[in-house]
Amino acid sequence: MAKMRRRPEASDELVFGVCHAFLKGEKTEAIAEAFGLTREGVYPLIVEGAARNYLLLCPPAQQQLTERLALRYAIDPGHVRVVATRGKAANEQVSWAGGDLVLDLAREVAARKKPVHLGLGSGWTTLQVARRLAQRLRTEFGGADLVLHALSSGFDIKDPLRAPVAFFGSFSDLPVKVDYLGLFVSAAVPWNMYEDVKTQPGVRESFQHAPDVDIVVTSLASAGDEHGALNRFLKLWGNEAIDDLKRQGWVGDVQYLPYSTGAPITVQSGVRAVTLFELSDMVAMVRSRNKHVVLVGGPCGDCGRPKTDALRPLLEQPGLRVWSHLVVDAGTAEELLGPATVGH
After folding, report:
1. CA distance 326 to 331
2. Burial of 173 (0-12, 13-18, 19+ CB in 10 A)
3. Below-50 pLDDT ranges, the chain
4. C-alpha to C-alpha distance for 118 and 64, rounded to whole angstroms
5. Residue 293 near residue 286 (C-beta atoms within 8 A)
6. Is there a contact between 145 and 115 (Cβ–Cβ < 8 Å)?
């Protein structure tokens, strides 16, 4: 089947008008006549509309699972969103729901302070959240100015798009003013040098502005998922670091920060990631009630493996409640409602 060609030279008015008529159910012949096109010329304009983000798919909520999850873990149901999707594709769709949630929270914050400071964690999931948020902001005719903060640095030279500073490009040419605060530093440093690194010029300023952040956007990974960012990162340093974490009960990480089923793991040997916030900082932000941490917990985007084993402690342990708002898919929610699997 031939690939559908685009029409990048077409005007916004034409592309949007054709898409609107098509989605209303008008016949192709009628659309072609109304806009002075051939019948075959209609379809490339619909493809063009999708490329210009005019066609917005909104993942449906699974309200029953949301209420059951909230009841099971004593959570305010208004702070949990279960998206009616599952499987590998759910990673992207849950991220869309996360982006919509961040927009809602940004509007809430903007009602009491401006600009709104948004902290972006690393990883493919957060990149998709950022793209969705930028897509939504392009349809806004006003709103608060934004300041974007990078929460960590990148480490994978073959996949630089997972670094937070790479997400900033999605926010160009918006109808609101956007400023940026990057974090340019080695992805990891020895534990005994960490406090000194934070005081270095060019790094110090990023940490000084950390208290300004109103909303944090992050994901997580399971220790047992080889595609997880921390797993891939530690393999660069050899198996000793991974074995050390496993001895301490490692089940997952948020922004390269590992934890067990009961508490954060604070390793005092080897290396650690440079991150704007510790897990304890995020817990404090959530408890303050005037800051938000959005945790997007869809399945692994590479293999579709659910992150249930890593999510459960973040629901059960007060000292690991690093999120104020949680977004998951239906498959993950169903697993969280069942008993913990032996070995997780």
Report:
1. 14
2. exposed
3. 1, 342-344
4. 31
5. yes
6. yes
CA 118 to chain CA centroid, Å, is 12
Do the Cβ atoms of 308 and 344 come closer than 8 Å?
yes
**Average pLDDT over the chain, rounded to an integer:** 91
Q: If you search the block for the tokens 């997880």, which residue do you land on?
A: 228
Among 125, 124, 107, residue whose Cα is nearest residue 116: 107
Half-sphere exposure of 102 (CA within 13 A, CB side): 33
What is the number of other CB atoms lying within 10 angstroms of the CB of residue 26?
Answer: 14
Cα separation, 107 vs 116, in Å, equals: 9
Write the pLDDT tens digit of every residue in 55-71.
888 999 999 999 999 99
Q: Which CATH architecture is the domain 63-337 placed in?
A: 3-Layer(aba) Sandwich (3.40)
Task: Pinpoint the alpha helices (H) of 10-89.
Answer: 12-23, 28-35, 39-51, 63-72
pLDDT tens digits, one per residue of 201-244:
989 999 999 999 999 999 999 998 888 888 887 877 777 778 88
> Counting Cβ atoms within 10 Å, is residue 199 exposed (0-12), middle (13-18) or buried (19+)?
exposed
